[in-house]
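Forgive a beginner's question, but might I ask you for the amino acids of a protein and the tokens describing how it folds?
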Amino acid sequence: MTNVGENVKRIKFFVMIALIFILAACGNSGIANPLNYEVSDFSYVNQNGEDFSLKDLEGKVWIADMIFTQCDTVCPPMTAHMAKLQGMVKEEGLDVEFVSFSVDPEVDTPEMLKEYAEGYSDDLSNWHLLTGYTLNEITVFAKDSFAALVAKPEGEDQVVHMTKFYLVDQNGTVLKDYDGVSDTPYEEIIADIKKVQ
């Protein structure tokens, strides 16, 4: 009887360990130490002058960043890296959306964003450049959704903002961020996208 009791205890132990591993894997979609920021609900305007909201991204994996068209420093390389990543994702046959939030919305019109983006990519079908809100709104949204700083010093035409790319899952949860300016880890981002799709 003792052996049977010990065997039952062992089986229960191994089942419990297996469940822990399964639940851990489900909890973060395979991304180690996910950020788990929740993107706030939004409804803005894209480069085509059309309404675009968080609802349009439901069930989709997406990459987000923050840029503005008059940026003299970090935005051109960030946008070039985003365009390169977009091309690599397409080659891999992955279904991913790209979202760039303007951090200078009172200057960046949909037309300006479209012209800006067309300088980097000839396919904007899955790339949404957003405006149609106030500077204060994007400042709060960036902080609440991405733990990101946005600030436009008074009398300046340049905006201080984060230079990360953010991986967001199908539920609007920010899982991870990456350097968007230099040494952008394209292969790592693609590998992480595959983990959550």
